[in-house]
Specification:
With 196 residues, the protein is of the alpha+beta class. It is 41% helix and 15% strand. It has 9 helices and 4 strands, in the order ααβααβαααβαβα. The protein has a 4-stranded antiparallel sheet with strand order 1-2-4-3. α1 (7-15) packs across α7 (115-139) and α2 crosses α7 (115-139). The longest helix has 25 residues, at 115-139. The chain is globular, with a radius of gyration of 18 Å.
């Protein structure tokens, strides 16, 4: 059985896509980010809870503060990327559930009244949305450089609040020359899939 998505789209989103390590200086516009969000917001999450939050780092002052919180090897990439996004999980996502999950408004308090339940669910579902976000960046003809080499507590303190847990930083832009490391190996189907 073949995939419905044409081969060029498969290549763009998956086979030829890799983490970009450098970018051109072409800006990434708010309109591009809006288009990315308007596509990826439809990716499924549990109970449609949609806990991902995106903080765009645009000003030079904010960029410098963020660069200082990145691991040493990630600092030059973050300093030079046309746009940087901090992806975080909103641990108070349940406040939006009556709107996002209207057929079961009791879910807000029944399942997510306790902070610990919200944090676990927010982390899992925001990570799903972060993956959709990266694919959306690719669908926009841009490259993504997601990174977790950073001072998470520092990023939370500097850019977020106690209700938002940082997941990753994503550099975004048009890939520059030699932007890619060689493709790393992948596991074979039979090493991953088990039928019971």
């Amino acid at each position: 059985m073949s995939l419905v998505l044409d081969a060029a789209a498969q290549d763009l989103l998956f086979r030829e896509a890799r983490t970009a390590n450098n970018f051109t200086d072409e800006p990434v516009t708010d309109e591009q980010v809006q288009a990315i969000y308007d596509l990826v917001k439809y990716g499924p999450t549990s109970m449609n809870q949609s806990p991902l939050r995106v903080t765009l780092v645009r000003s030079p002052e904010a960029r410098e503060r963020l660069v200082q919180l990145m691991a040493e090897g990630n600092q030059p990439k973050t300093a030079a990327a046309p746009l940087v996004a901090i992806l975080s999980a909103d641990n108070e996502f349940h406040e939006e559930l009556p709107q996002l999950f209207p057929h079961f408004p009791q879910a807000k308090d029944l399942f997510f009244g306790e902070r610990s339940a919200r944090e676990g669910s927010a982390a899992l579902n925001a990570a799903l949305q972060a993956a959709y976000f990266i694919i959306g960046v690719r669908a926009a003809g841009l490259a993504a450089g997601p990174m977790t080499g950073l001072d998470f507590a520092g990023v939370q303190k500097e850019f977020l609040d106690d209700d938002h847990t940082p997941l990753m930083v994503v550099n975004i832009g048009k890939p520059g020359p030699d932007a890619w490391f060689p493709r790393s190996p992948r596991l074979a189907y039979e090493d991953v899939v088990t039928t019971v």
